[in-house]
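Support reply, case 0932

Customer input (verbatim):
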Amino acid sequence: MLVVGMGEALWDMLPQGKQIGGAPANFAYHVSQYGIDSCAISAIGSDELGDEIIKVFDEKKLCYSLPRVDYPTGTVQVTLDEEGVPCYDIKEDVAWDNIPFTDELRKMAFRTRAVCFGTLAQRSPISRETILKFVDTVPDAEGQLKLFDINLRQNFYNKEIIEHSLKRCNVLKINDEELIVLGRLFAYSAIDLQEKCSAILNDYKLKMVILTCGTNGSYVFTKEATSFFPTPKVKIADTVGAGDSFTATFCSAILKGHPIPVAHKLAVDVSAYVCTQYGAMPQLPEAFVKRMEM
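Our regenerated output:
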């Protein structure tokens, strides 16, 4: 059982210093904390920042496929508002815009049980082709998860990128602000949040739609039922990577056979904990790992 996070691996330049990040890399790291084989797929430059990413992944014992390319390792300038919510300035023409599709990736795809990808790394034609080719190569077997964590950032998306991804995934993860954008693009704007999610679920024949609404809780929609949990009140350090920890925990729990409400509650609790820590990749308390095995 191999779980893959595919797309950007980069450095978040936070007010208190740089932290390793990138949604797919965050996802893969948190999956690995539950004892599941996971791999971060991206690209880095032949520079000091690339060397440091390798060092951090090695220290965290995270498997990776990070070919060196002739572009600088990606960085994101992150500013935080008074509530710890991040605003991103994402640098362009960087290594993760140029992820090559290799024979190694093709072989990895055939043994992948779950893959998580978003829109951001699809902003460039090279990485977009690699990501979609990888997702297409992952077998459509029973229990396979192709998770589209939409992650709309700045202007690095369009309707075509979103539609191609929706047609390939079987699980959509989206937040309430992104759902409004998607509603405008796909003419779902006249209906409420839950109706939008149900329409997307049916139109694209998805297994589930995961909707996070910040402090207003989160939902998991399937054809059979809806799961809702409120967001715990915690003292926030920053919210960087909290959504990725939610996605990773939920995916891991589903793969381990937990029912959706159990997976959902664990994901909510883990993401709340990550909000109390600085950076996107804190080590999780053992209590969460034990709950995953129950």
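We compared this against your earlier run and they match. Two observations from our side: The two ends are 19 Å apart (CA to CA). The CA atoms of residues 2 and 112 lie 5 Å apart. Please reopen the case if you see a mismatch on your end.
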